[in-house]
Structures are given as C-alpha cells and as structure tokens.
Amino acid sequence: xxEKNERDLFVKSILPAFGNCSDRLNNxxxxxxxxxxxxxxxxxxxxxxxxxxxxxxxEGILISxxxxxxxxxxxxxxxxQSVSHNRCPMSWVTDRWGNDHAxxxxxxxxxxxxxxxVDNLHIANITEGNWPSHIVWSNLYKVAPAEGGNPSDxxxxxxxxxxxxxxxxxxxxxxxxxxxFLTGLDWAKPFLENICHLTKTGKTFSEAVGEFxxxxxxxxxxxxxxxxxxxEDEWVQxxxxxxxx
Length: 245
Hints:
It contains seven helices and ten strands. The protein has a seven-stranded mixed sheet, sandwiched between helices. A three-stranded antiparallel sheet has the order 4-1-6. A hairpin with a 5-residue loop joins strand 8 (about 195-200) and strand 9. It has helices spanning about 5-20, 70-80, 90-95, 110-120, 155-175, 185-190, 230-245; strands spanning about 30, 35, 45-50, 60, 135-140, 145, 180, 195-200, 205-215, 215-225. About 35% of the residues lie in helices and about 20% in strands. It has one domain: Uracil-DNA Glycosylase, subunit E (3-Layer(aba) Sandwich). By secondary structure, the chain is α/β, with parallel strands linked by helices.
C-alpha cells in the first residue's frame, strides 16, 4: 500500500490542480492511483517498477467534482484503499494471471516482462504466486482517463509538478536498490532531472541508465522503452544486463 504522506501529497498537489481546470475539462471522468508495495518488499528493497499511467483503475470521478475539498478527501481515500489489501496489495497481479473474466495480467506485456526481470535478477521464485509481493509498482502520472488509455498532454501537464514531487517522495519512502522505468526516456527524463544523471546506452530497449545516492544507499536506475509490441526476450535481456553492468 502507499504511505499516508503520499495520499496527503495527492490531496494537496494533484487532485486540486484538476479542480482548478474544471472549466476546461468539466465532463471528463478520471481515475486516480497511488504506489503499491508488496508485503515482502521490505525484506530486501530489491526492485521498484514504474509505468506511465494506469490503464483504468478504481472508480472514477468527474473533474468538476474536484472543486470540493470534501470530495477531494473522499476520493483520495477511495484511491488509497484501492492500493491497500489485507493479504498483499500486489497479489492482484497473480490473482488475475490467466483470468479471462477480468483484466488478464498474463496478456499484459508490462507484467510479463516485469515477471521475467524479477526472475533474471533472482528477486523471487516466479513459479510461486507471491512473486509480485517482492516489488513496488508505481506510475509517473497518478491521474488517467477512467475509461482507460494514457493521459493526454493536457492531463499530463496539469498534474506533472505534483506527480514529480510524489515520485521523489516514493523514492524516499521505498528506497529501492533498483529502479526500472518501463516508460521510455522521453516520459521518464523530466521526472528525474533533479534526482539523477542519466546516460544514454545506445541500446534498442534499455535506453538510459543512471544512479543516485540517498541514505547511504545507491539506487541503480534503468529506463527502458515500453515493452508493448517488442521482442520480450531481447527486452528482458537488455534490461537485466543494464542492471548488472
């Protein structure tokens, strides 16, 4: 589950930014998201993965409703609860693996390559159902269209400043040893300008690498292109090699 200070920043800096733009986006329904931490992650802090934005998540809310502090607080709590689970927040990944009656994570290139990277880095036994419990999952943008799909340029611009601050808070909260962006460099770079120096690799799939130090720990950063439509074995191999380089 997300930490409470992440929920508080979501309330303070992200949702109100949409309320301030409700005259332009009055009838748009959006959905929110906060980071999800597996209940075995704290054993080693090995890997945090970051996508672009959720493709549908919890119940939506009209942007026009985000003019009310009461409704902002209420909706933030709904989002916070959606990333919390008594068993493990990340258990949904394996619960839906091969599930043809709902969103099927096995059909997702994102989750297939994350699973393979977890295996290659020897973070967990991927034949066991709790492998996602060893990681943290987040997204650059915390607000996306409720009906699915990536946020538009307008929706990204509205929330960018708050989302960049929230990513920094997540990195402090979770202190991952490895940080993998499955976003492409063009999406990730603006979020990392004040966090770490990035070096382009010249590779096809692992586009850039970097590292940053915090609390006497070094985090290795790999930025890869989104895996959709890519040869997944090659994608996973390049990402694995980038982490071991």
